[in-house]
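Good morning C.,

I know you're traveling, so I'll keep this short. The sequence:
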Amino acid sequence: MLEVEKRTKIFVLIFLIIVLLATWILTTSARSRIKSPIPPNNLEKAPIRIVEVTLAENQHDQLFEQFRNFADKHAFSIRIAPTDPTGDNFLVQMWREDIKVIGVESGDPGRFGIAFYNTYEERPVPLRVFDELIFDLEAVMNFRGHEQWF
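The tokens, ready to paste straight into the viewer:
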């Protein structure tokens, strides 16, 4: 009988060691799978700065060229695409590691809204960087837009 109790204790001890080892392996391997945070969707967060530009009719080509110059100067990648089949409304996206910029036609004719976002909320860019970018955007585009500060 003493032999059976000894075997049972050894079996329970081995079982507990295996369970603890398996738990440790699962918890440490789960942590190593997370390499970097997934950036949140821009629709889920408020912009840091918004600038609205008023355009005369048929200035899209000139506006897009100015956006491209701004993007080149500040190392942004840029994408310009129509948002409707008529080609009257456009979306402008600029991005780099730390900042995203999204520009869209507003509901008002001749109004174009430009929103500036942090790429990662946990690594916010200083507000002065956004202010400097907006100042330079105004200089490159030769406009004085209506700015909203957040």
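Safe travels,
E.
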